[in-house]
Every structure is written in structure tokens, then in C-alpha cells.
Amino acid sequence: MPPQIPNHVRSRIVTLHTEGMSNTAIKQKLDGEGQNVHRTGILRVIRRFKTTGTTNDRARSGRPKKCSPVIETLIDKLLQENDELTSPDLQREILTETGLRISLTTIKTTRRKIGWVCTGTKYCQLIRKPNMRERLVFALNCLSTNETFERVIFSDECPIELNQHALLTFRKEGDTSRRKLKPKAKHPVKVHVWAGISTEGATPIHIFKGIMDSEFYIKNILQETLLPFVQEHFPDGNYRFLQDNDPKHKSRLAMEFISSNNIPYWETPPESPDMNPIENIWHELKHFLRKVINYLCYNINEFSF
């Protein structure tokens, strides 16, 4: 079946024809206007206009639509209530509520017609209701105090694999001299990086392997990395320290150390959104390792900042 010619294009064809233009000239004119219409279609529009005095399509025979506006409304209502309903599910629901058996093809067509499309499911963090209230209070407090997050030390740790991460490679067509396979370590070196950032600069970076516990966190991070930075950049103590709610960060030993050393810890609600801007640093760091350091690093001693 030839493609349907839009009504405004049909009217344009009739106008050009009444101005005395030939079918070939009409086609050239429409092509220049960005309307790709075959000469046969132009001829068909002109013939219909001469015969009927209009460019509208003739009435077609066929059975009436089974999906009435009532069924369309029902499908829309069902999907509003449960957006995971499949076509067979909708078919069963429609049969139960109306007694009508509608084909799956018709249901799919109707669903698409009223604006429902199938997409991949996106997930978000499951938040408990008490924590929702705490998050709201925290956000409203930031708004009421015109919080600008100045003089805040944003801290975090990130696991990083030192490995080959080339996503794309290029070679000349037909050139077999360049190997298409790149070596990749079976067990790449994996390290953890802790750092903090603030308006007064960045803390030293602490690189370590293995699992961090609360004792390691207190000695190597808080005592040996954070406090010297604070003494140098915030000697007046006018700052706030922000960390996530990881158990080792919130352990009794860690909180006692924070309290005894007068570290102004800025507590955030449980299940808070990850608003830490240092996440952007981790992204850039991994991008640097992937795009700039293009060799395999089998020994952590080979890697240096």
C-alpha cells in the first residue's frame, strides 16, 4: 500500500494544479518544499479532486472498532494502577470487567495509541517511612538556613581497579599487523582510595588495600590524614566534617574519637541521597586511569600520584 498523503499536502497539490502546473512541475515543487510525494500519488489526488470535488478519502468498509473509548479508558485506568500489566494481563482484566474478549494485537495497538510505551525499569533506593521524614526535615532545614555547604569537608572512599579499560580501538581496514586483542589481567590489582574535598582544598589521598574496619579508619584516616589537614587549613575549627553513614564511620569507637578531638561532625539522616560532590572526583579519577594510564599495573608500587 502506498504511503498516505497528508491532507495539507493534498490541498497543496490541488492549489498548484489549479495554477496550471503540470504533474512533473508539482513534484519538483513539492520536493523543494521537503515533501516527498510520488508522481502516481499526485495523479491520484488530482483525479479524486476532479471526480468528487474533494481530496478526502472515500469511506471504507470494515467491522467497527472493538476497543471503544470505554475500553481505552479502562486500559488507561488499569495501567495507572499497575504499570507492570502485560497484554495478556490486560486481556484477562478486560474480559472480567466487560465480558469482551479482545485480541492481544488490538490491546497492544490501543495501549500504544493512548500513549503507553514499554521501557526498561528504573530502580531507586527503598526508603523507610521514618527516614523519609528525617530526610525532609534535613532538606527543609538546609533551605531555611540558606545552606551553601561552605567550609564543609566532603569525605568518601572509593574502590578502584588498576586494569586495562580501553572501550574503543581503531585500525585500518584490512590491516592485520595490529593485534585486535589487548591483554587484560585475570586478577587486576584493586585498591581503595580515601580523600576529602573542601573550599580550602583537598585532603591528602590515602590509598590502601583490603577491608577497612573502624580501628583502621580511626588511625589511618581520621588521625593521620584528616586532623593534620584540619590543623593546617581550618585552624580556627570553623568547619564541618561530612561522611556517609557506613557502619565503620558510625561505630562507637569512631564517634568517640570524633567527639574527643572536637571534630564538628555534620550528621545526615539514614538512607540520605548521595549528594557528596566528591563522587565527581571519583568519576574523573577513573576516567584518567582508563584513558590516560593505558598500561596494565600488576604491582601497586608501580602506581603513583
Count of individual beta strands? 5
Helix share bin: 40-55%
Query: Between the first and last Cα atoms, what is the distance in angstroms?
Result: 66 Å
> Average pLDDT across residues?
86
Structural class: alpha+beta
Low-confidence stretches: none
Largest sheet: 5 strands, mixed
Helical segment tally?
10
Q: What's the helix-strand series?
A: HHHHHHHEEEEHEHH
- Indicate the radius of gyration in whole angstroms: 34 Å
Estimate what percentage of residues fall within beta strands: 5-15%
Question: Mind explaining what this structure looks like?
Answer:
The structure is a single chain. The protein has helices at residues 7-18, 23-32, 39-52, 69-81, 87-98, 104-113, 129-144, 214-233, 252-260, 278-291; strands at residues 152-162, 189-198, 201-202, 206-208, 240-242. It has 305 residues and is α+β, with helices and mostly antiparallel strands. Strands 1, 2, 3, 4 and 5 form a five-stranded mixed beta sheet that branches. The longest helix is centred in the last third of the chain and has 20 residues, at 214-233. It is elongated, with a radius of gyration of 34 Å. The two termini are 66 Å apart. Keywords: Paired box. Residues 5-97 form the Paired domain. InterPro entries: Homeodomain-like_sf (IPR009057), Paired_dom (IPR001523), RNaseH_sf (IPR036397), Tc1-like_DDE_dom (IPR038717), Transpos_IS630-like (IPR047655), Transposase_5 (IPR052338), WH-like_DNA-bd_sf (IPR036388). Pfam families: DDE_3, PAX. It comes from Holothuria leucospilota (Black long sea cucumber).
